[in-house]
Amino acid sequence: MVRRLAQAGNATMLLQSGVSVTTVSRRLGHASPNVTLAVYSHLLPGDDEAAALVGAQALAGVR
After folding, report:
1. How confident is the model at residue 3 (pLDDT cuts 50, 70, 90)?
2. Residues whose CB falls within 8 Å of the CB of residue 57, separated by 6 or more in sequence, listed in order
């Protein structure tokens, strides 16, 4: 149980720091990034807003 809590804490810190899901997945030993996303995607609520901003900037010709 302690190991899982430490693993979850590590995953949380890495994902919130911007480390890619693929890298975190590999470090956790998950079979695929899909497993990592299924477990930890709730930690990335700002990603949708960031994606929307990038899309809007691209449409507006801002780089």
Report:
1. low
2. 63
Do residues 10 and 35 lie in contact, with contact meaning Cβ atoms separated by under 8 Å? no
Q: What pLDDT is recorded for position 44?
A: 74
Query: Average per-residue pLDDT in the chain?
Result: 81
Domain that holds residue 36: 2-60
Q: Nearest-CA neighbor of 13 among 60, 51, 5? A: 5
How many domains are contained in the chain? 1
User: Alpha helix locations (H) across the chain?
Assistant: 2-16, 21-28, 33-40, 46-60
What the block records as the tokens of 30 is 């998950």
Residue written as tokens 């990034």?
Answer: 33
The two structure tokens encoding residue 35: 């497993």
